[in-house]
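The aim of this short unit is practical: by the end, you should be able to scan a pair of folded records and say something sensible about each. We start with the first protein, listed as its amino acid sequence and then its structure tokens.
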Amino acid sequence: MDMDDQELFAEADVVAGEQLSLERRMVGLTCLELDNAAFLLPGTTMHAERGGKLSRRSLEAIGPVLGFDPREFLQACEREVRRRSS
């Protein structure tokens, strides 16, 4: 992703109520879809854990594969979970 794309997505990420817009626009996945999905990553099979949730460790591993900073991706997912449960 070049700098123009990063700036565009960063601007999109601040839209009210769309904390995960960066992720949604980049990979077309919502946090709920991540929570309920099973992923086959290079050398690693990740399955949804009990209760349909992925662990913090799993989300941290998925983020870089999708091209995101692991910490920022995890925080965005946590914000979305809180938003959906409020």
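Turning to the second protein, read its sequence before its tokens, just as you did above.
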Amino acid sequence: LQVCIIDRAAFDMAMATRAQGRGVEYVLSSLVKNIEVGKDKVKVEAVHQGEKSSFEARMVVIATGFGSGLTERLGLGKVGDFVAGAQAEVETKGVDEIEIYFGQEFAPGFFAWLVPTSASRALVGLAVRRSPGLYFRKLMSSLLAEGKIVSAEVKPRYRGIPLKPLAKTYGDRLIVVGDAAGQVKPTTGGGIYYGLLCADIAASNLHRALETDDLSAKSLANYERGWKSKLGRELGIGYSARRFYERLSDSNLDRIVDIMKSSGIEEALHKTDDLSPDWHGAAMLRLL
């Protein structure tokens, strides 16, 4: 199983450029404050470069990432469960491979990472349910003591990572996609692949809804049925696996790894198509 590092800034830029080539116009430096759904249009109120502005459209797609508050104000609820992530870019010494850290010391219930981005730079991060700053400082101190980073004096960026989907991802003249909808792998917190899958499903349903001029909640419910048909089972299995993992002590986890190695389970998983970076359900059921 090979894992590749994606240059997220370059990836986002490439996606934006493709969208612009299809006629998309961006209004940057704007913070959406409110969305009003009317009978025949949607009004979006924003603050653009310090000035209030508004936009009108036939419908709106909420793809704000986690924690904007818009979905709750629109009556769609909020993501049911999440963890807090902390990450910073650091200067490194001799780090040329991805390193993942498990255990109670640095990331109880989740994991921490050191991901090289160049010969002398890397991303250091972790996700936990509580006190991300505390665990981040402990991780940085350890990496400094091991000589892997040059300095522990960095300021991390924090963000929430959803673990469960939004209860409802559609309404009259609106749908919710990506992290804002909680369309994220509960096992790892990764959201790019699932977000792209759901965006494709959203695009197909929006195309039909716009063609027929039926942007009602009843019509847009097809979007939710579509993405839940594709991902619902996977998300359910992944969340159950996540809750199980969070209850493991370090000794329990070590024991499970030893059993997997000694019984041939690890080797068997590597040989099967069930083991995938994006689809974890089949591998989880195989382990059971």
